[in-house]
Design brief:
With 399 residues, this protein is mainly alpha-helical. The protein has one domain: Growth Hormone, Chain: A (Up-down Bundle), CATH 1.20.1250.20. The chain is 77% helix and 0% strand. Helix 11 packs across helix 18. The longest helix has 30 residues. It is globular.
């Protein structure tokens, strides 16, 4: 009948998700996180007035965040990716609300929400990428994603410090909330699907302990995790102890923000590193980057608190090679993980970030009880050198 004609509903056309889609989302997420990346450790130092206390605080928050990461597959299974991603955006925004109170309980709550939000966003976005990007295109797509985030990680830390020092604690955190709102709106505009059609009929249970055992039983996944953990340990040290080095040696808060921004400005080399990796092989470039990073860290440790500006410059050299690991380091995992295990293995893989925020501060809190802040860079240099040796020995030549 004529009265039963269903008129079409016209929706705005959205292109299928590709490398630029995920680069855009990651860039906005980076703005929301980078804006206060230098503010958070300085706020913690202002509350605790002790570098060792800051290390202990970061260790405690990372332990709690690790638990949230391991249970993320259960949340994805129960609520779907899009709602977990949405909850992650809200967690980052709510974390900034708590930071404004500038008390120790609020600082702990804000840092924990920030870690949980970042975990939710990283795991869900990684699953979307694996669904929509071919394995052959992963190296190129990842280098584009890292490069597009350059503006956020370059200008964000300095902008956050400037807002914090000139306009007070509220200004940088309001900006974080604004970026989170734009990110959420754009995510829903893209209408990313969970690609149910390509999933297998049987999905493994999402028990965290069984997932860890399954992950640990696969050598290539273990290797991928170690590479990611090594590079993330550097960035944790750079973001937290770089600004602390500037503050405790009298260079000032702005110097700390400028150091972090300068290091992040090197993210523009991500596309270049991607091309180099395709030209000379993933194994060679990853191993080279780890070794060069270690040398820079050893020299920064030697400069230490006696020559903080020189130490900062050496950390920037290390950051240059760490960008190579950012651009190429996810490729071993994405190429090795099985399709039917992606949610579970992605959650275990993501623990590299939580543990990199847990273990280095824990070790440094012990080291700082006996040595100056420069010793933290030397300890890290030893570990990254080990990572480089393992990567060169076990990464397949064909990867």
């Amino acid at each position: 009948m004529v009265t039963q004609v269903r008129h079409p509903i016209w929706l705005p056309e959205v292109r299928s998700a590709g490398a630029k889609t995920f680069a855009t989302l990651y860039a906005l997420e980076s703005f929301a996180r980078a804006t206060i990346s230098s503010v958070v450790p300085i706020q913690a130092y202002e509350i605790l007035r002790n570098e060792q206390g800051v290390s202990i605080l970061y260790t405690a928050v990372a332990m709690l965040g690790l638990s949230a990461t391991l249970f993320m597959p259960m949340l994805i299974s129960r609520f779907s990716r899009r709602w977990v991603y949405t909850a992650g955006v809200f967690a980052i925004a709510l974390g900034s609300v708590l930071f404004v109170f500038h008390t120790l309980p609020a600082q702990v709550g804000g840092m924990l929400l920030r870690v949980m939000g970042a975990s939710a966003l990283a795991i869900t976005l990684n699953l979307y990428i694996m669904d929509h990007i071919r394995k052959a295109d992963v190296m190129r797509a990842e280098s584009i994603r890292i490069t597009w985030s350059m503006l956020a990680w370059t200008g964000g830390p300095t902008l956050g410090i400037l807002l914090y020092t000139r306009f007070g604690i509220l200004a940088p955190h309001l900006l974080v909330i604004a970026f989170a709102a734009v990110l959420l709106a754009l995510f829903w505009y893209f209408r990313l699907s969970d690609n149910i059609a390509i999933r297998p009929g049987v999905i493994r249970p999402a028990n965290p302990l069984s997932n860890i055992r399954r992950f640990a039983a696969q050598p290539r996944l273990r290797l991928a995790w170690l590479i990611a953990f090594g590079r993330s340990c550097f960035w944790t040290t750079f973001f937290v102890y770089g600004p602390l080095l500037m503050v405790v040696t009298g260079q000032g808060e702005l110097a700390g923000g400028l150091l972090v921004s300068a290091g992040n400005a090197l993210l523009f080399t991500g596309i270049w590193w991607g091309r180099i990796g395709r030209r000379f092989g993933l194994r060679n470039i990853v191993a080279l980057a780890f070794v060069a990073l270690s040398v820079a860290l050893f020299l920064a440790a030697a400069a230490g608190g006696a020559h903080p500006l020189l130490a900062g410059g050496l950390l920037l050299i290390g950051a240059f090679f760490a960008v190579a690991l950012d651009a190429l380091g996810s490729t071993p995992f994405i190429r090795a993980v099985r399709v039917y295990e992606r949610p579970q293995m992605s959650a275990v893989y993501r623990t590299f970030l939580d543990l990199s925020e847990l273990l280095p501060p824990l070790v440094y809190s012990i080291v700082l009880a006996f040595f100056g802040i420069g010793a933290t860079f030397g300890i890290l240099g030893i570990f990254t050198l080990v990572c480089g040796a393992i990567a060169y020995r076990y990464l397949p030549r064909s990867m």
